């Protein structure tokens, strides 16, 4: 069939042509927005799940829902080696710009923007008199956040991330309240937020919820994100509403394939849908990947199980390079050895395994493998499923590794 008309879109964070199986999450967020609009207290949201389940896609869809209701929004992607000051400042600046035309008090808007600028520029401790400024401090002096007002003094510029973030978000929420709206700050890859910044986010959300302020944080991250938040602030378990994003059930997976195809006057035989669900296992990224290759292979409608069988090797080859291989290549030999042991123990299903079992399989002491395990966690390749357990963040990664030669 015509590849130009191929509707399927496997891509990182790319919205599929049919966002199937996420109605409950979208409805839950609508309730949050409505409650805040009516002055009701509401918790911030955290989306968790493996890679490839569509967390970023859903995060973007939630942002679109907030924008459609006239909220100010900003989005950032956390990085383990970067403070949140500048990304949060840029995201919040965007949100305030969206609300600005409706705020009649120019002086108040400029005052809050000055606080945003002060927060952004306070990205490194100021050197003692006579001391040489650090590289971060020199960068701070050169870098400007693109806000054409003077930086505020004495507000969100203490250098204490927790204090400063509370003051910053409180002032921004005041602008939203003035125009009868809200602000939503979206944070992707939230598990990579630095420890001090995680604590600051929790403290700010706690303060805002007590104030009933119209500002929420919506985070997305890997399955161990709740543990990261809980380790920072014990009350985070009650501070956020956690939504686990999982693979699609059969009905949703079929809809993700059938609805876009129907718009192109193409159909699937039931046996083809059976084969595609077995191959993709309900993971949204895999549904799109197998759907795209199968479309290109098929000669005509309806698409058959034979078409799926012919397409499967090509789809698996693409996934091996782009989805699995790119991650595997980031690992050191020691880390690859650790992951191969995990795959042997967990099987093709990629089940969680005990860290002690991995050490036993490698004939090593658990403590000697801690550096490799911790590095894999920082790279986002594995996560601690629970105490003493480790699992892959990428679905079907165990199956991929079992097909690769061990180091």
From TrEMBL:
GO terms for molecular function: ATP binding; electron transfer activity; heme binding; metal ion binding. Residues 1-22 are annotated as: Disordered. InterPro entries: AAA_16 (IPR041664), Cyt_c-like_dom (IPR009056), P-loop_NTPase (IPR027417). Residues 177-328 form the Cytochrome c domain. Pfam families: AAA_16 (PF13191). It comes from the Bacteria. Keywords: ATP-binding, Heme, Iron, Metal-binding, Nucleotide-binding. PROSITE patterns: CYTC. Signal peptide: none annotated. PANTHER family: ATPASE DOMAIN-CONTAINING PROTEIN (PTHR34301:SF8), DNA-BINDING PROTEIN-RELATED (PTHR34301). This is ATP-binding protein. The lineage of its organism: Bacteria, Bacillati, Actinomycetota, Actinomycetes, Geodermatophilales.
């Amino acid at each position: 069939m015509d590849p130009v008309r191929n509707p399927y879109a496997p891509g990182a964070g790319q919205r599929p042509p049919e966002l199937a199986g996420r109605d409950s999450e979208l409805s839950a967020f609508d309730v949050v927005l409505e409650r805040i609009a009516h002055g009701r207290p509401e918790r911030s949201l955290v989306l968790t799940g493996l890679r490839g389940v569509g967390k970023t896609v859903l995060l973007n869809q939630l942002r679109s829902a907030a924008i459609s209701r006239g909220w100010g929004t900003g989005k950032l992607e956390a990085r383990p080696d970067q403070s949140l000051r500048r990304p949060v400042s840029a995201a919040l600046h965007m949100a305030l710009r969206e609300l600005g035309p409706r705020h009649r008090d120019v002086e108040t808007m400029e005052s809050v923007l000055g606080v945003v600028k002060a927060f952004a520029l306070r990205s490194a401790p100021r050197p003692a008199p006579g001391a040489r400024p650090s590289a971060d401090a020199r960068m701070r002096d050169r870098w400007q956040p693109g806000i054409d007002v003077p930086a505020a003094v004495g507000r969100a510029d203490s250098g204490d991330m927790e204090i400063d973030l509370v003051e910053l978000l409180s002032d921004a929420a005041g602008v939203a309240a003035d125009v009868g709206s809200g602000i939503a700050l979206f944070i992707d890859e939230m598990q990579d937020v630095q420890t001090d910044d995680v604590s600051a986010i929790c403290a700010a959300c706690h303060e805002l919820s007590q104030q009933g302020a119209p500002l929420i944080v919506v985070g997305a991250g890997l399955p161990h994100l709740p543990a990261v938040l809980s380790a920072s602030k014990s009350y985070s378990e009650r501070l956020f509403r956690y939504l686990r994003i999982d693979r699609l059930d059969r009905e949703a997976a079929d809809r993700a394939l059938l609805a876009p195809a129907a718009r192109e006057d193409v159909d699937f035989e039931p046996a083809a849908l059976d084969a595609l669900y077995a191959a993709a296992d309900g993971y949204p990224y895999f549904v799109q990947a197998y759907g795209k290759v199968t479309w290109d292979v098929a000669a005509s409608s309806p698409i058959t199980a034979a078409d799926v069988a012919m397409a499967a090797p090509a789809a698996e080859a693409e996934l091996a390079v782009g989805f699995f291989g790119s991650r595997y290549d980031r690992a050191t030999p020691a880390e690859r050895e650790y992951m191969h042991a995990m795959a042997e123990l967990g099987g093709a299903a990629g089940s969680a395994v005990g860290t002690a079992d991995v050490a036993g399989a490698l004939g090593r002491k658990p403590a000697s493998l801690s550096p490799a395990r911790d590095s894999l966690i920082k790279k986002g390749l594995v996560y601690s499923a629970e105490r003493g357990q480790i699992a892959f963040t990428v679905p079907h990664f165990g199956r991929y590794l079992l097909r690769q030669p061990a180091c």
